[in-house]
């Protein structure tokens, strides 16, 4: 038993949730920069621009843009072998459609990658993680095929610049969130399924072009997809519940089917026929999807759900309401079912389905952490949560034969919540002194879960 020698242990963040410096060094506005703090419904309140007096969590976040050397040194102290992070598209192309990239933005990520490499930490990079240059909304963002070319130009610059520094790339964060939260998934204003499926189709083509580029010019690179972890059990052995669960899961898994198999599954095409949805297919698209199959599948895993014949799925950010509860599982304070065995189930589901390497790039426990009078933060609950999930990964690898190549915990340093903009929902091993209003010293300190390097 045990994990492979070169297993990518580490932590994960996202640029819009940690960097801050939202207009520093030539960066443009992105879709996250106009999202205010507050309770999530489907997505937080968003505005057309910056309104004085509103609080925008991404503007300062935890100031990782300024603190990255200190933060990466602390990651190294924990023994990280990988750091899953993202590049902020608007740092490289401030408006999205610029003719030339912003050198200051490129230089910043050179510095970040060099710092990782100094400590033997492998960067695992998301190309677009819940942020899209706001300038692309004038085209309709991903509803417009032109955005594929803007994305490809962005990717071409990244691959050329960071070839030799970054091996592992993911094209879009939680791409299936286009069905649930199109603004976060790609700055898309979408009120109909036709609009969402058109935007998703264009992202599939853009991802395939990125994969194809890497395969043709940078063979050492591995380019993967990233799925937002939606997993469910049937409410009962009633065939109606089982079929309803299967149908509901297909709404999310088809994203993986397209990117891992290179074509739309028949069940989705039949659904499009019934719903009158027409994809904007052009000559060469089918060949591109097939040639642009991803090298690995990465995903987030936080909870499982229960689906049944009465489910009318209501997705609030990260907290879907299915109409059913699982009596066998405990929940977090945010209502997320804690299900370590579900992680093993998800690994087997994906490996049985696709037989390609897998990465878990988000997993962790969000909690209110108490700072004691002496500065200590005792988060045994987080240690216990992670220990139980890691045990199930071990079983998936050594009993089930799953090819799992990496595991990065979400929010390894406290960051603002993507869903609500809160800081009080903390995942990290490193505490950051910032509150829900963005006030604090930004000082870093170690929680018990930080541990020591062995």
Topology overview:
Blueprint: E1 8-12, H1 15-18, H2 64-77, E2 82-86, H3 89-92, H4 103-118, E3 122-126, H5 146-162, E4 168-170, H6 182-186, H7 193-217, E5 222-227, E6 232-234, H8 239-261, H9 266-275, H10 285-291, E7 296-300, E8 305-307, E9 314-316, E10 319-321, E11 330-331, E12 337-338, H11 340-354, E13 358-362, H12 380-398, E14 404-410, E15 430-432, E16 444-446
Parallel strand pairs: 1-2, 1-14, 2-3, 3-4, 4-5, 5-7, 6-8, 7-13, 13-14
Antiparallel strand pairs: 9-10, 11-12, 15-16
Helix pairs in contact: 2-4, 5-7, 7-10, 11-12
Protein name: 6-phospho-beta-glucosidase
InterPro entries: GH, GH_1_N_CS, Glyco_hydro_1
GO molecular function, one term: beta-glucosidase activity
Q: What is this entry, summarized?
A:
Belongs to the glycosyl hydrolase 1 family. By secondary structure, this protein is an alpha/beta fold.
- At CATH's second level, what is the architecture? Alpha-Beta Barrel
Low-confidence stretches: none
How much helical structure, as a percent, in the residues? 25-40%
Class of secondary structure makeup: alpha/beta
CATH H-tier superfamily: Glycosidases
Give the biggest beta sheet: 8 strands, parallel, barrel
Q: Can you give keywords for this protein?
A:
two-stranded parallel ribbon; 454 residues; alpha/beta; single chain; TIM Barrel; 16 strands; globular
């Amino acid at each position: 038993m045990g994990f492979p020698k070169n297993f990518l242990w580490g932590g994960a963040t996202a640029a819009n949730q940690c960097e801050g410096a939202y207009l520093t060094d030539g960066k443009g506005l992105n879709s996250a920069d106009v999202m205010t703090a507050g309770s999530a419904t489907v997505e937080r309140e968003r505005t057309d621009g910056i309104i004085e007096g509103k609080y925008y969590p991404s503007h300062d976040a935890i100031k990782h843009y300024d603190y990255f050397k200190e933060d990466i040194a602390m990651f190294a102290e924990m023994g990280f072998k990988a750091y899953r992070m993202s590049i902020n598209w608007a740092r490289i192309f401030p408006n999205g459609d610029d003719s030339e990239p912003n050198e200051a933005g490129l230089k910043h990520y050179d510095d970040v990658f060099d710092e990782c490499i100094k400590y033997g930490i492998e960067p695992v990079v998301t190309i677009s993680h819940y942020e899209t240059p706001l300038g692309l909304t004038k085209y309709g963002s991903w509803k417009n095929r032109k955005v594929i070319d803007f994305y490809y130009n962005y990717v071409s610059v990244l691959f050329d610049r960071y070839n030799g520094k970054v091996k592992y790339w993911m094209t879009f964060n939680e791409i299936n969130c286009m069905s649930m939260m199109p603004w976060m998934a790609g700055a898309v204003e979408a009120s109909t399924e036709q609009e969402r499926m058109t935007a998703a189709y264009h992202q599939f083509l853009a991802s395939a072009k990125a994969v194809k580029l890497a395969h043709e010019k940078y063979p050492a690179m591995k380019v993967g997809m990233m799925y937002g972890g939606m997993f469910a059990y049937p409410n009962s052995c009633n065939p109606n519940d089982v079929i309803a669960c299967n149908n509901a899961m297909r709404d999310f898994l088809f994203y993986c089917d397209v990117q891992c198999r290179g074509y739309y599954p028949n069940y989705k095409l039949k659904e499009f026929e019934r719903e009158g949805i027409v994809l904007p297919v052009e000559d060469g698209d089918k060949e591109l999807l097939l040639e642009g199959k991803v090298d690995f599948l990465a995903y987030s895993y936080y909870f499982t759900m229960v689906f049944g014949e009465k489910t009318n799925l209501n997705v609030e950010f990260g907290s879907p309401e299915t109409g059913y509860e699982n009596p066998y599982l405990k929940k977090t304070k945010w209502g997320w079912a804690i299900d370590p065995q579900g992680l093993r189930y998800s690994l087997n589901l994906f490996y049985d389905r696709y037989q390609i390497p897998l990465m878990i790039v988000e997993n962790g426990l969000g909690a209110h952490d108490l700072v004691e009078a002496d500065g200590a933060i005792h988060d045994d609950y987080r240690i216990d949560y992670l220990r139980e999930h890691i045990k199930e990964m071990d079983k998936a690898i050594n009993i089930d034969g799953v090819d799992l190549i990496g595991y990065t915990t979400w929010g390894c340093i406290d960051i603002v919540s993507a869903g609500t903009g809160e800081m009080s929902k903390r995942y990290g091993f490193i505490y950051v002194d910032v509150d829900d209003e963005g006030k604090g010293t930004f000082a870093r300190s170690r929680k018990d879960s930080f541990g020591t390097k062995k």
